[in-house]
């Protein structure tokens, strides 16, 4: 494992520690090829990377079609958890799975910060230091019946 | 909205404002900032719900334990217009009785208060306007009872042998536990279920959500297993969890396919599409790096954004994110 790989894994584990409820995190190229992942053994990280990229692509296309500008992230909430995907520039993405208790708002704040640092690692630029985001109380969102990743925050 | 400063890292002092204020005066939501924090929903002085990311709510207890099906839950959510409506809908569909629902709500609220009290509390804000409970207890919950019971449980956890954080500690099975699990009938019931799910990646809170069990019960069981030498603490954050390395395409782990993956789901393999032969991007296998052109574009976009952050009005500046 190279230094960058170790730094990527450390960043993914740090995200799990910062946000209660995060179960799996992965980094993939924009076309869905897995770069690295910190996932449970029961999760097929390569399939998850491909589907996350597809969800992000659908959200991006939808935003473009509706004239909503550049995509920041796409989130979906299920009865048993949530998925959020953040674009890292135009070349990569970060996908995060959380369980039913995950505070999706906080997760998106922290995932964006992680995506910025991972972007720096992938491009070889010096990584920004970890700055804890302010903790804002927010009750868990309502579980919905959404069973497919649905674009939420295209802008 | 009023702000109430709460000193100290943990504790349930905030809950005393519930008992020190005349009844029928407090309705709304008490938002507890912290890690994991939470929200206490109040109606006419009684607690309707305590929701926290640190403990399973009634929905998780019902769904993950298999008590009700996801389709039934989704239908009840659609039909129930508000927090009372969801509970009433569950009862009217004979999915759960009123007494059982009240008990479940009390247990979940107690677990939520436990999670809030065991975690870090940064402050408390009372929003008297909104009571945004997801599923309110049919008969409300006595704040005095909740406070006393939550304090008792926090003390009980503190007095146990090895201290175990339900959020930070991610214990891993020892060789003795693995041998015990393989022996027929040696470990059964909830203890076995919990032991099977301790893999160095999951905290007590994660296992509670996974099984749809109480945070308190899972934390107590993990503490017992730790004391019996069947579990040990995993390495600190940032180190490799024992027996469960991060996956990467460069070193694919030898693991079986997920048993519940639907047949026919597209399963991409690096390089299978041949796209890497067409695009000027090195294959992912090996040390992935974007092309020089992509790096230049990414840096140019980032610098443009940093320039925006440094604008004189300073409204968009975010410390620590300008190092790319």
Automatic annotation (TrEMBL), chain A:
<dbReference type="InterPro" id="IPR053141">
    <property type="entry name" value="Mycobact_SerProt_Inhib_Rv3364c"/>
</dbReference>
<protein>
    <recommendedName>
        <fullName>Roadblock/LAMTOR2 domain-containing protein</fullName>
    </recommendedName>
</protein>
<feature type="domain" description="Roadblock/LAMTOR2">
    <location>
        <begin position="9"/>
        <end position="98"/>
    </location>
</feature>
<dbReference type="InterPro" id="IPR004942">
    <property type="entry name" value="Roadblock/LAMTOR2_dom"/>
</dbReference>
<feature type="region of interest" description="Disordered">
    <location>
        <begin position="133"/>
        <end position="155"/>
    </location>
</feature>
<feature type="compositionally biased region" description="Pro residues">
    <location>
        <begin position="133"/>
        <end position="142"/>
    </location>
</feature>
<feature type="compositionally biased region" description="Low complexity">
    <location>
        <begin position="143"/>
        <end position="155"/>
    </location>
</feature>
<dbReference type="Pfam" id="PF03259">
    <property type="entry name" value="Robl_LC7"/>
</dbReference>
From TrEMBL, chain B:
<feature type="region of interest" description="Disordered">
    <location>
        <begin position="237"/>
        <end position="283"/>
    </location>
</feature>
<feature type="region of interest" description="Disordered">
    <location>
        <begin position="305"/>
        <end position="324"/>
    </location>
</feature>
<protein>
    <recommendedName>
        <fullName>MarR family transcriptional regulator</fullName>
    </recommendedName>
</protein>
<feature type="compositionally biased region" description="Pro residues">
    <location>
        <begin position="250"/>
        <end position="261"/>
    </location>
</feature>
<feature type="compositionally biased region" description="Low complexity">
    <location>
        <begin position="237"/>
        <end position="246"/>
    </location>
</feature>
């Amino acid at each position: 494992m190279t230094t960058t790989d170790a730094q990527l894994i450390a960043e993914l584990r740090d995200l799990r520690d910062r946000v209660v409820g995060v179960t799996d995190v992965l980094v993939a190229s924009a076309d869905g090829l897995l770069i690295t992942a910190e996932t449970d053994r029961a999760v097929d990280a390569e399939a998850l990377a491909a589907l996350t990229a597809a969800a992000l692509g659908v959200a991006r296309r939808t935003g473009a079609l509706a004239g909503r500008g550049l995509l920041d992230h796409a989130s979906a909430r299920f009865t048993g958890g949530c998925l959020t995907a953040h674009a890292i520039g135009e070349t990569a993405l970060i996908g995060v799975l959380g369980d039913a208790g995950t505070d999706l708002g906080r997760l998106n704040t922290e995932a964006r910060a992680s995506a910025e640092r991972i972007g720096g690692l992938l491009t070889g630029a010096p990584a920004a230091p970890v700055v804890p985001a302010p903790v804002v109380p927010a009750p868990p969102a309502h579980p919905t019946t959404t069973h497919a990743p649905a674009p939420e925050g295209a802008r | 909205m009023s702000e109430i400063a709460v000193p100290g890292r943990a504790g349930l002092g905030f809950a005393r404002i519930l008992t020190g204020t005349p009844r029928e005066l407090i309705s709304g939501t008490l938002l507890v900032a912290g890690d994991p924090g939470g929200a206490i929903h109040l109606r006419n002085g009684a607690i309707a719900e305590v929701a926290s990311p640190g403990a399973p709510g009634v929905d998780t207890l019902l769904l993950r334990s298999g008590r009700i099906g996801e389709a039934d839950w989704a239908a009840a959510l659609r039909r129930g217009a508000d927090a009372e409506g969801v509970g009433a809908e569950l009862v009217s569909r004979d999915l759960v009785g009123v007494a059982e629902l009240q008990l479940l709500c009390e247990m979940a609220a107690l677990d939520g208060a436990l999670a809030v009290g065991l975690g870090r509390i940064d402050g408390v804000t009372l929003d008297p306007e909104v009571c945004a409970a997801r599923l309110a207890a049919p008969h409300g919950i006595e704040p005095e009872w909740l406070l006393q019971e939550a304090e008792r449980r926090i003390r009980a956890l503190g007095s146990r042998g090895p201290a175990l954080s339900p959020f930070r500690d991610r214990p891993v099975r020892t060789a003795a536990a693995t041998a015990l699990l393989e022996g027929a009938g040696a470990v059964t019931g909830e203890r076995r279920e919990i032991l099977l799910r301790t893999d160095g990646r999951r905290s007590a809170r994660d296992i509670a959500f996974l099984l749809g069990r109480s945070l308190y019960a899972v934390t107590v069981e993990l503490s017992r297993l730790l004391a019996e030498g069947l579990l040990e603490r995993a390495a600190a954050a940032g180190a490799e969890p024992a027996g469960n390395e991060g996956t990467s395409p460069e070193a694919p782990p030898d693991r079986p396919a997920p048993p519940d993956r639907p047949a026919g789901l597209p399963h991409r393999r690096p390089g299978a599409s041949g796209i890497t032969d067409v695009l000027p991007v090195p294959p992912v296998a090996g040390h992935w790096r974007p092309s020089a052109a992509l790096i230049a574009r990414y840096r140019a976009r980032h610098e443009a954004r940093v320039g925006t952050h440094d604008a004189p009005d300073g409204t968009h500046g975010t410390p620590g994110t300008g190092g790319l």
